[in-house]
Amino acid sequence: MKTWRNLFLGLLILTSSVAGFWWWTRPAEQAALPPLLAAGTSAEGFARALAPREFVFPLDHGPHLDFQTEWWYYTGNLETDDRGDRDDRGDRGARYGYQLTIFRRGLTPGATPADGLRTNQIYFAHFAITDVARGTHRAAERFSRGAGGLAGAQGEPTFAVWLEDWRIEALNADGSAVRLRAQEAGLSLDLELRSAKPVVLQGERGLSPKSSAPGNASYYVSYTRLATTGTLTLDDQTVAVRGESWFDHEWSTSALGPQGQGWDWFSLQLSDGRELMLFQIRNADGSLDQVSGGTLIAADGTTTRLLADDVVLEPLETWTSPRSGATYPIAWRVLIAGHGLDLTVRAQVPAQEMPFAFTYWEGTVAVTGTANDQTVMGFGYLEMTGYLGSMQGVF
Questions:
Q1: Which of 161, 180, 292, 299 has its CB 3.0 to 4.6 Å from that of 153, i.e. a possible disulfide?
Q2: What are 74-109's pLDDT values in tens digits?
Q3: The pTM is what?
Q4: Which domains does the chain carry?
Q5: Which residues 6+ apart lie within 8 Å of 208 measured at CB?
């Protein structure tokens, strides 16, 4: 009974806190905000991503409070050291995937002067670890307000983003090396990431359109291959791990086009030293938006923009979630004929649905195939949204 009482009290406090936050910061004309962290709030007054711009780091790793929506997104594929002793769980060379993403949503443009807990910024975060050998995927979600030190972001003097004790903190001046820390109910990570390549400006010099309408775009930068070391903890058993991670940072005041249903997004790290970022935006009538495409990053860090006609993404296999009923493609053929790539991308664990305020699939994938008729392998992450309905207003 005590456990249930504590759970009820916790939910009551969280609900009251978020409701109070919304009340203090809501636009005067809105008596109540809809679900999904005020996704339906007006974009009036917020800046739009209209044209390519110059980027300055580490400042641009920090928040852009004139834009409505922003996220800092880390994923990675890790393994225990198979050259040493068995880890605490009895595994040698075991594989894991992880995600740590912190989102910011502005209810009004610009920063609010420090005033206790009053703020116009809400932060929420997703944290997940996939244990490939055991076929398990565990995830946690948090919400907080951007005030009182509870949550926030900064670009200078040192890049940092945090939501309570889930933290991203730079280890060097330009933010290309960071430490990630998060823990929740027997699940934790403590990782150091160091980029092996320069920052990538996605789309057209950092401008990534989401539909043909002007301003329906984000500013989008990435570190596509970060050498990673540290520890993961699952059920109080800690393992030392190493591997590679990927970082995406996007900010926008944007939405999908009027027919937009959702998107499929891939971040792939290949054994030949190249990386691929690919996305397609699916319309309600089954067609693909022509802004779909991606970026091919060469081993030396140079980039080639890929347009919609350059890429074929073909679903090969599906999985249906027993929780939500959504059916997701969990295996894909990726064909980029102009660059000699014919790849199969397959989920390492089918059940990697994120069961949160909005439901989506996000998980680790393995890559096999050929590059110019030579065998190539790799790992990456796949995100799929809109399989339960339209994602309008989420961007």
A1: 161
A2: 999 999 975 444 444 445 579 999 999 999 999 999
A3: 0.87
A4: 43-255 (2.40.370.10), 256-395 (2.40.370.10)
A5: 49, 202, 217, 218, 219, 220, 250
